[in-house]
Amino acid sequence: MAAAYSVHDYRRLAKRRLPKMVFDYLEGGAEDERGLTRNEQAFDDWRFRPRRLVDVSERNLKTTLWGRTHDLPVYVSPTGLNGLLRPDGDRILARAAAAANIPFALSTASNGSIEDVARACDGETWFQLYVMNRELADMLVKRALDADYDALILTVDVPVNGYRERDKRNGFQVPPRRDLRTLIDGALHPAWSLDFLRTGVPKLANFETMEVTSLEAQAALLSRKMDASFDWDALERLRDQWPRKLIVKGLSRVEDVRRCEALGVDAVILSNHGARQLDAIEAPIRGLEAAVADASVPVFVDSGVRRGADVIKGLCLGAQMVGLGRALLYPLAARGRPGVDDCIEILKAEMDGALALLGVPESSGLGRDLLTD
């Protein structure tokens, strides 16, 4: 078995195991995909200026959010169709997050249902909401509340689907087309194919028992046919409807962060959806410092995180926590639960090493003075 020492190693292993159509879904971005490179490059553009002669013999990466202490300042970002990467992918990620004592966010487009994933782990769980129509959204919110999710994440950067050329060229859909190209691709990746011969094609489990037309809802979700009329008034209504922590994901402008605060939102996530919506969009890390400056609620950031040092840079710029998306999907695809556990440990070691080399024994001591651009 090939050794893996980084997220990049796990990416190579995932590419080897997955059919091209599935890997392209995982990896792909919008249009020319320059945004994918921009997200990672934006982290690289920040460089460290360490403190010296500091006792760093003991180091602490723990962070406290809403009165609950987590072992690492990261959370598992909501990602859809994880069951295509590995059977039972959502529950694998949820259980790995619970074992690492970090929050896990379940996507509306999950292959494990709201209820099943909640029962599968004992960690902190957040549910991410896509609003395709208001009636359906109300049902999903109620289910998440009944299943005792700790927080609700509203994603607001998908009024329409991004133009993802890889998916269009591949004819990507769920379930996959059974044409000659797909069959050959599956045959060339036997480990992946055998998994799904045993377990069957993953379904959008949250719509298997809905009171609305299931096929219609699934088709809308896969094509990102969202409620493009969802606005600030609708957010205010959702705030009244959801009694627990409410997080808004997909922001990039300071004035939007402030308006969310005014409506009583509990946290915001600066995100460009992993560069899967708009290609010519700024990397979220670039707007983090300005967003945090006047914010009175926690600000999180995601998109482009590949190293523990990226997490540390986000914390230096004021993020309360940093989201891990593809960084954990690669090991999920490559090796399942052992891969996810291992990759979390790799990222933890990278973060811990960065603290030591920066002269910062506590992650709470990270600050803007440690960075230059």
From TrEMBL:
PANTHER family: 2-HYDROXYACID OXIDASE 1, S -2-HYDROXY-ACID OXIDASE-RELATED. Keywords: Flavoprotein, FMN, Oxidoreductase. SUPFAM superfamilies: FMN-linked oxidoreductases (SSF51395). Glyoxylate binds at Y25, R164, H273, R276. GO terms for cellular component: plasma membrane. Residues 1-373 form the FMN hydroxy acid dehydrogenase domain. It comes from Maritimibacter harenae. Belongs to the FMN-dependent alpha-hydroxy acid dehydrogenase family. InterPro entries: Aldolase_TIM, Alpha-hydoxy_acid_DH_FMN, FMN-dep_DH, FMN_HAD, FMN_hydac_DH_AS. This is Mandelate dehydrogenase. It comes from the Bacteria. The active site is at H273. GO terms for biological process: aerobic respiration. GO terms for molecular function: FMN binding; L-lactate dehydrogenase (NAD+) activity. FMN binds at residues 78-80, 107, 128, 130, 155, 249, 271, 302-306, 325-326. Its cofactor is FMN. It holds the Pfam family FMN_dh. Gene3D superfamilies: Aldolase class I.
